[in-house]
Amino acid sequence: MTYSVAIPAFNAAETIAEAIASVLAQTIPPTDIVVVDDGSTDDTAAIARAQSDIVKVISQANAGCGQATSRAIKATMCDIVATFDADDLWVPDKMEKQLEMLRQANKQTFVFGRHRHFKHGSDDYTTGHECDGKTRSDLVLYRAAFDHVGDIIDPPGGRGDMVDWLGRARELGYQFQVYDAVLVLRRIIPGSLSYGRNNEKDRGYLMVAHRAMMRRKARAQMEGES
């Protein structure tokens, strides 16, 4: 099974080389890696491009992580796509394990894994908090499923894009399976988009909840009319 990797990146010059190296080191390497540089003001694009001939870099004005992810997926070559944040790491057999799980499932299945947190600047990859990873860095799916669910939408504040998109996928009947082993090392960087609680950044979660409620209301009305 061949696959592509889609990476949104914003000011990721400190981490993107290591992230891409973990992709290239997979026991089953990817056919192509698409990085969408989302308006970075550092050397993210140049560093990404220098990692391998299979890396394609697309630069755009800053539009948000969801939009950058969507654009990256649309530029990939394979029927199977893995999405990945530019500051995380994959363990070497991540894709081998997930591709086998995907092979045994149907095309209505998204495959995730568990992940372990580690602090930026630390080489301790073994003692951090572990949890099921239904995040961008864990996800492997068929490209047709992305096309069916539609673009990933960036909420106000920037957080909640994947929560919204995965919620929409569930409503369309997609099933989630989690490989029961740590496959992703999730980097904790103070000040990053996902770090800590922040009222301004967290506004997106309110929009996600409201959108889900409105979709449920619309479905209920349609069922009542039928």
TrEMBL record:
The EC number(s) this enzyme carries: 2.4.-.-
Claim: Nucleus is one of the keywords in the record: no
CDD domains cross-referenced by the UniProt entry: Glyco_tranf_GTA_type (cd00761)
GO MF annotations in UniProt: glycosyltransferase activity
Pfam families cross-referenced by the UniProt entry: Glycos_transf_2
Family matches, as InterPro entries: Glyco_trans_2-like, Glycosyltransf_2, Nucleotide-diphossugar_trans
Keywords: Glycosyltransferase, Transferase
Superkingdom assignment: Bacteria
Domain Glycosyltransferase 2-like, chain residue ranges per copy: 4-128
Keyword Transferase: yes
Enzyme class: transferase
Protein name (Swiss-Prot/TrEMBL): Glycosyltransferase family 2 protein
Organism: Yoonia algicola
